[in-house]
Amino acid sequence: MVGLGPAGCAVANFLARLGLEVVAIDRSTEAQLSTRLRIGESLPPDAKHLLKQLDVWQNFEAANHEKCYGNQAYWHSDKPTFHDFMKHPQGHGWHIDRAEFEQMLRDKAKNLGVAIHADTSIGELVRDGDIWQVSLKNNDLCPAPREFSFVIDATGRQSWVARKLAIERLYESEQLALVAFLQTGQDLKDSTSLVETVENGWWYSAKIPNGRVATAFMFDPRQQQKTVTAGVENWQSLLAQSQHTAKRLAGLNNACEYELLAPPKIVAADSGILQQVYGEGWLAVGDAAMTYDPIASHGLMMSMVSARDAAGAINGLVNGRDDTMKMYAQRMCESFMQYCELRRAFYRA
Fold it and tell me: Which of 268, 292, 319 is the last residue of a domain?
């Protein structure tokens, strides 16, 4: 398996629990995996059931994640709309510490016997009959090819394995995000997600653990790529054009000071799906298979659900069922089509 993000760790977890041998690699070092700041921190209330299936619920509940009781949006309107979780059986969702969350999933996979190799990349990937010949590049691993019966692409939006196999991605929309993480000077009382449209895009912000805030400015690269840059001054200028997001970061009476934890950076935030999410001896999960617009707030949840379904499909294949891979692809396609309808409804508004 290639990739140690949430989808990769989750599918490794599910496969190991089914008794299958799993080797997981990632080109990032252990230090990078443990500290990297990544956008995508929202989990809906329904995630509790999935975390129980992964047998990490107690660890998750004991961690320092922020409870989220709903979302508010100023979507082409000065009046907010609210979507609260108070009527949901689970009561609330979460804004997570992404690094801590991923570490929890990696630790669980290790405890289940998954062989995890960080700071490792693939040199060659060749299909030889029913076997993959894979050469791994790492100081601790022999560069000679190793044999694997199945390869899972969990490399996120890069879809490294799929691209290596000349599988193209079909895009539903193009979008970029200018992402910044802030350390605030005081604790924000409002734990909801905040969405606000502005003239040339829209803002998202959410309180995350340890007095931090995740922010993202979404924009259309065809219209704004020349005017939106990753510089601090540009980010501050864009923030000043907002009303509710800027007010939220300023705090009460402009008393809340913040500092950027890292320079703002531009990342992909498009919607798309691979032309095919599986093939002979391989399968893609999470963002490697399909990506959602952040407006849906379900990207992280989708990654883990696809991991569960992928593990079931692979287990079915191992046990002689030839239809499980096709069923997996059908579920992914149906999920993406439902998401597309939701996204279009948002943007038509």
Answer: 268
